[in-house]
């Protein structure tokens, strides 16, 4: 697998510096969260994108595009608008732009999520799932057109929060949408052991996020601070021969980004039986 680190954990670093440090620490992949300060898709130039692509190439780093920036579309409302809002146009445009950039950066997939229920929405979840199904079909088609994979992430607090929600969506789509699975999210919301879901969805698992968590509390924790059984997780990934991105996501650790990323790599190497 391609062990990586998410740039949202380097929120106080310039992107080029974050990428250099991630490579120095031995990671093989960068989960690039497009944001107002990290390759802003609405203000960066083709030369900016080319420079990042060249840096990734020089450092022999793979890349996956993450689209979870909090205020990139609305400076006052986190994560708005979403694909299920009354007017999702800004979100759709953002994902179009992200897909273009993913192609230019050589990223194998683009990770996205459903979004939370609209503020003040009085209708049914059935209507929202219908909305989402139409948008997911569009995102999947758009990504295919750019030669990349779309990877929907179930996220606590959003319309698609659990794997049951994902299955409900797939029932409307008539196919299994590509997946991003966050190890911590699975521990937070699901009843079965985390590794069971990795095996169950192996055929559509295109992107993996690594963090620890406890049941019922959506807070990304450093490894060992929650209750995820990482031994079972990594033995399952080995049996699956998973070769995709597996990136640490610890956005709240940006104040101590370099040391956190160093300690995370040491932990991951121990899990893989390598010398830290």
* Overall pLDDT confidence: 97
Please name the fourth-level CATH homologous superfamily: Divalent-metal-dependent TIM barrel enzymes
* CATH topology descriptor: TIM Barrel
How do the strands of the widest beta sheet line up side by side?
5-4-3-2-1-10-7-6
Approximate strand percentage: 15-25%
Please outline the helices and strands:
Elements: E1 2-6, H1 15-24, E2 29-33, H2 46-58, E3 62-66, H3 89-105, E4 109-112, H4 125-145, E5 149-152, H5 163-173, E6 179-182, H6 183-189, H7 194-200, E7 205-210, E8 212-214, E9 217-221, H8 230-240, E10 245-248, H9 257-271
Parallel strand pairs: 1-2, 1-10, 2-3, 3-4, 4-5, 6-7, 7-10
Antiparallel strand pairs: 8-9
Helix pairs in contact: 3-4, 4-5, 7-8
Output the keywords.
276 residues, globular, 9 helices, single chain, eight-stranded parallel β-sheet
What features would you describe in this structure?
The protein is an alpha/beta fold and 276 residues long. The protein has a single domain (2-271), classed as Alpha-Beta Barrel (TIM Barrel), CATH 3.20.20. It is 41% helix and 16% strand. It has 9 helices and 10 strands. It has helices spanning 15-24, 46-58, 89-105, 125-145, 163-173, 183-189, 194-200, 230-240, 257-271; strands at 2-6, 29-33, 62-66, 109-112, 149-152, 179-182, 205-210, 212-214, 217-221, 245-248. Strands 5-4-3-2-1-10-7-6 form an 8-stranded parallel β-sheet. Strand 1 (2-6), helix 1 and strand 2 form a beta-alpha-beta unit. The chain is globular.
